[in-house]
Write a structure and sequence with these properties.
The structure holds two protein chains of two kinds. Chain A has eight helices and eight strands. In chain A, α1 crosses α8. Chain B is α+β, with helices and mostly antiparallel strands. Chain B is globular, with a radius of gyration of 13 Å. The chains are: A alpha/beta, B alpha+beta. At the A-B interface, β5, β6, α6, β7 and β8 of A face α1 of B. Bound molecules: zinc ion. Zinc ion (ZN) binds next to α5 of chain A.
Chain lengths: 230, 90
């Protein structure tokens, strides 16, 4: 059913990338690129469920590949351990059919959003903090009428965030919240890979109160990424 | 005099906005001059110190009746208005 020959790029092998990669690998996706420049730490394991204590200190992309190849010996995993930058992102994404973003900072999120536009790729964006998360699928790379991540979220410098906004490091993330958002991203990936486009919506998930809200994202006609270029 | 329960905006708060305000949802009557998203945020910030702190950050996103809205978009006391921050955690 799922387009098994697809190559899926998973940005981040953390709380979201872990369940995304596990579900896609077990669904039969044969080729994943997993990009993460961090190492596995003990404090990650409650939510980054693709890693084990034997992977402590290893690059997360390598540790994830180890687990996934034990589950699915025939799978091909490209472990990308360098930080994704403006300079290397096109190389990293080459040959991929879909991007699933589970990164842990705004700079990477905007970077991959821009790259999906220039490379014509759909983007499934997920984010999690504390008890809650957000998921959205963006088709701006495929459909000029579709909104992008930048239509929804302004550019925020991560240094500004570090001083004024809660982060995973400062506020923590509940493991099941990351698992649920990752599962929603994996489901969205399976939908995209079976040729069933998703509406441009943001799904807000509050697992503290079990409240969910799905909102429509209109395209921003003045978007500096996907809007008309001056 | 009939109590007009319907003339209250329904506010929904997500993530750390919810945590700072202390509730995921509340219903609030809006003054007549609260007619845009910007006016609404100014009004809510003046409600309590918790609202003021929760709604201080300039990057907050707002959805009116389940559609992402911008600063000048209209709001009324018939609307469901969700306020949520951008979140970057993975
Ligand atoms: Zn855009």
């Amino acid at each position: 059913m799922v387009h098994l020959t697809a190559k899926v790029f998973v940005l981040g092998a953390g709380g979201l990338g872990a369940p995304v990669a596990l579900f896609l690998a077990q669904a039969g996706i044969r080729h994943l690129v997993i990009a993460d420049s961090d190492q596995v730490e003990l404090s990650n394991l409650h939510r980054q469920i693709v890693h084990t204590t034997s992977g402590l200190g290893q690059p997360k992309a390598i540790s994830a590949r180890h687990t996934l190849t034990r589950l699915q010996p025939g799978i091909s995993i490209t472990a990308w351990t360098e930080r994704i930058t403006e300079q290397n992102i096109h190389t990293a994404l080459s040959g991929c059919d879909l991007v699933v973003d589970g990164s842990d900072n705004f700079a990477s999120r905007h970077l991959v959003n821009r790259a999906c536009l220039s490379l014509g790729l759909p983007l499934i964006s997920g984010a999690v903090l504390g008890w809650e998360g957000q998921v959205a699928t963006f088709y701006h790379g495929v459909n000029a009428q579709a909104p992008c991540y930048r239509c929804l979220h302004p550019e925020i410098t991560d240094s500004c965030v570090a001083t004024s906004l809660p982060t995973c490091a400062s506020a923590g993330v509940a493991g099941p919240a990351a698992g649920m958002i990752g599962a929603l991203q994996a489901m969205a990936a399976m939908r995209v890979l079976t040729g069933q486009p998703m509406d441009p919506t943001l799904f807000l998930v509050n697992l503290h109160d079990q409240l969910f809200l799905r909102i429509t994202i209109p395209k921003d006609p003045a978007c500096p990424v996907c809007g008309p270029q001056p | 005099m009939r109590l007009q329960l319907n003339d209250m905006a329904r506010l929904l708060y997500f993530s750390w906005v919810r945590e700072k305000i202390g509730t995921p949802a509340e219903e609030i009557p809006l003054p007549a001059d609260v007619v845009t998203v910007t006016r609404l945020l100014d009004f809510l910030r003046a409600c309590t110190p918790r609202h003021a702190e929760a709604l201080a950050h300039p990057t907050l996103r707002v959805a009116v009746n389940q559609t992402h809205a911008r600063a000048d978009d209209p709001v009324s006391d018939q609307d469901e208005i969700a306020i949520f921050p951008p979140v970057s955690g993975g």
